[in-house]
Design a protein that fits this description.
two-stranded antiparallel sheet; 3 helices; alpha+beta; elongated; six-stranded mixed sheet; about 170 residues
């Protein structure tokens, strides 16, 4: 084996590893964009995180859907609801412990733990929850998008809020 062929294989191996690492970071950035959109009540960015058609979405109590338009409508109805000009549902989504597997240059899967907190001013409650996302990702029009997003709640606690505690 010549030194040139070994160097070529080494360079190709490094390039493949770099491509995989860049893909993993792009998938993480997608999920972070999705979570920030949830908290910022950014419906357009929320919807843009999914493929155009045919996404498999299962959010347990919120429902299961075969397209992202349906969950985007649920998102708008709940997250964007206002009373007296103020949002009444305040969320905090923290996606932690990502485990991303790149299957090909255009497909990947991932698992995430969600640490979630919600204040519902209409109901006067606070909910704290932990759960797991199981996602699949594809490249669509040159960008990573979610093609599957299934959430399993592990546990949650909902408690009443004292009026003196609630501020916006």
């Amino acid at each position: 084996m010549s030194d040139d062929s070994a160097a070529t294989r080494t360079a190709a191996g490094l390039a493949a590893r770099l491509d995989r690492l860049e893909a993993e970071e792009a998938v993480k950035a997608l999920k972070h964009r999705y979570l920030r959109a949830c908290d910022a009540k950014d419906a357009a960015t929320f919807r843009a995180c999914f493929i155009r058609q045919g996404a498999s979405i299962d959010y347990g109590a919120l429902g299961a859907f075969d397209d992202a338009d349906a969950i985007a409508a649920v998102f708008e109805r709940i997250a964007l609801h206002k009373v007296d000009g103020k949002h009444v549902v305040l969320d905090m989504h923290h996606g932690i412990h990502p485990s991303i597997t790149i299957h090909s240059p255009t497909t990947a899967s991932g698992q995430w733990t969600l640490a979630f907190r919600q204040v519902n001013l209409t109901q006067g409650t606070e909910t704290v929850m932990s759960g797991e996302y199981a996602d699949e990702y594809v490249v669509e029009d040159g960008e990573w998008k979610m093609s599957r997003c299934h959430f399993t709640r592990l546990w949650s606690i909902t408690r009443s809020l004292d009026d003196a505690v609630v501020e916006q």
